[in-house]
């Protein structure tokens, strides 16, 4: 099964119901994919940038672009204009598929989207196997992307469908954006089995989302840790959702107390709650915790997905075979990326990973082979499921004249700066540019941004006692 070329086999089954209540069969979806594919010249492989919303237009651009043997770059349509232009400069896409703003300019249109050809001044080729570029920091405008193949996408969709036991009776609702690898994996895995996807860009905080959920009998939703904090505030545990079968969580570690609450809820309701682990570099998923272990192994990321392999190495590069001994977590599988990209020139590079991924997570496994993450060896955190590169944040603020250092944990970004007069401006800039909400950001004052003799910022010294500073 190839989700880009074989969807027609599900024929007249409903593939998509969108938030405007339009219904599309698999045969109709396949025909739309073919129309988009035919609109692109097939003389050479092209890079198609898609300005993504959770809409049928974005979906057919993604599926049609890859079906036509092109490379697709998915970008959040709400991205800041300057950051978007930076991505354009870096990747030099041949085409842009996005909403029509004002007078039509594209040579192919479908509903509210148009396909525009760009005058690209590059002779850079694209690797024949390269199908998708997923940005590692969805809304920050960082050009760092992950290079994925059609084989990566299909293999991970198959694995997810297998461990979730998906079939064509499923009706997932899109509670995450499709330009985020977790959200895209929900779409891919359900298309793989011929399910009906409830496609919406509505937020879970909106009544319209739940009205749509109930009217079309959604069977599942997915969320990051922030989603589950928000749902608790929305009194999710009191909702009547008779069609719900399961829900999943990834994108960072869920607070132990929340994990326990949702596990108890799912047990009492006879639902399945899947805690999962993945990275963009592995197309989406690498591990999952079978629901029957939610309460006894609530801190675990679980076991490896079908077709993959997880193992640990010590600081000398030797495999760890003894339980409870910490090391760097590695993953091997058919869903491992080709490598990273930062610009158009990188898109011709061959497979640099060879199916093996250093996750840069520090972990251990127990006597039953369940893995546990204890920390990271690289400078990034996740907020609401989005990866935040601490160095990028710091560089951005320094470029705008703020003397500062960045740190933090999952779901909390910390900024140390030398003047409280900067607090308000820094907060406004980070909330706007990096799409960070108010409660996920703490700013505090320090006497100086301390550095060691080599001139490197002493992050541990600055952030170890940050609560002692004046915060806002």
Do you know the CATH topology of the largest domain? Rossmann fold
What is the 3D shape?
globular
- Strand-residue proportion: 25-35%
| CATH C-level label of the largest domain | Alpha Beta
Question: Helix/strand-derived class?
Answer: alpha/beta
Largest sheet: 8 strands, mixed
Shape-level CATH architecture of the largest domain: 3-Layer(aba) Sandwich
Write out the strand line-up for the largest beta sheet, numbering strands in chain order.
6-7-5-3-4-8-9-19
Unreliable segments (pLDDT under 50, ≥5 consecutive)? 468-472
Secondary structure: number of strands? 26
In which range does the helix fraction lie? Answer: 25-40%
Mean pLDDT over the full residue set: 92
Based on CA atoms alone, the radius of gyration comes out at 22 Å
Count of folded domains: 2
> Separation of termini?
52 Å
Count the DSSP helices: 11
* CATH 4th-level superfamily of the largest domain: ANL, N-terminal domain
């Amino acid at each position: 099964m190839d989700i880009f070329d074989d969807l027609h086999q599900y024929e007249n089954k409903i593939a998509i119901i969108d938030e405007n209540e339009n219904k599309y069969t698999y045969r109709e979806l396949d025909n739309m994919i073919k129309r988009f594919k035919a609109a692109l010249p097939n003389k050479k492989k092209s890079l198609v940038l898609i300005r993504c919303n959770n809409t049928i237009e974005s979906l057919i651009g993604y599926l049609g672009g890859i079906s036509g043997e092109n490379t697709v770059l998915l970008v959040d349509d709400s991205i800041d204009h300057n950051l978007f232009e930076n991505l354009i400069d870096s990747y030099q896409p041949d085409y842009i598929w996005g909403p029509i703003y004002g007078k039509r300019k594209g040579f192919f249109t479908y509903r509210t989207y148009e396909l525009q050809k760009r005058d690209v001044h590059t002779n850079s080729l694209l690797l024949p196997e390269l199908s998708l570029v997923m940005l590692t920091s969805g809304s920050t405008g960082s050009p760092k992307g992950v290079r994925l193949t059609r084989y990566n996408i299909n293999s991970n969709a198959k694995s997810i469908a297998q461990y979730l036991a998906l079939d064509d009776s499923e009706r997932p609702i899109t509670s995450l954006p499709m330009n985020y690898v977790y959200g895209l994996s929900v779409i891919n895995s359900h298309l793989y089995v011929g399910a009906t996807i409830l496609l919406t860009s509505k937020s879970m905080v909106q009544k319209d989302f739940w009205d749509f959920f109930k009217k079309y009998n959604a069977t599942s939703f997915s969320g990051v840790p922030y989603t589950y904090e928000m749902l608790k505030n929305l009194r999710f545990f009191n909702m009547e959702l008779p069609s719900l079968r399961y829900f999943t969580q990834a994108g960072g570690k869920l607070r132990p107390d929340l994990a326990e609450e949702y596990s108890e809820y799912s047990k009492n309701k006879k639902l399945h709650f899947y805690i999962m682990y993945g990275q963009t570099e592995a197309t989406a998923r690498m591990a999952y915790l079978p629901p029957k272990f939610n309460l006894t192994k609530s801190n675990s990321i679980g076991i490896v997905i079908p077709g993959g392999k997880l193992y640990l190495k010590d600081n000398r590069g030797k495999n760890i075979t003894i339980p409870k001994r910490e090391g760097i977590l590695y993953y091997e599988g058919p869903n491992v990326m080709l490598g990273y990209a930062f610009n158009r020139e990188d898109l011709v590079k061959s497979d640099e990973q060879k199916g093996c991924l250093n996750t840069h997570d520090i972990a251990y496994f127990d006597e039953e082979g369940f893995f546990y993450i204890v920390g990271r060896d690289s400078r990034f955190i996740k907020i609401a499921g989005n990866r935040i590169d601490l160095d990028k944040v710091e560089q951005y603020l320094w470029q705008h004249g703020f003397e500062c250092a960045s740190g933090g944990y999952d779901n909390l970004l910390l900024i140390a700066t030398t003047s409280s007069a900067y607090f308000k401006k820094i907060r406004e800039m980070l909330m706007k540019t990096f799409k960070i909400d108010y409660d996920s950001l703490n700013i505090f004052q320090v006497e100086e941004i301390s550095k060691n003799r080599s001139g490197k910022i002493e992050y541990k010294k600055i952030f170890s006692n940050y609560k002692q500073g004046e915060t806002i």
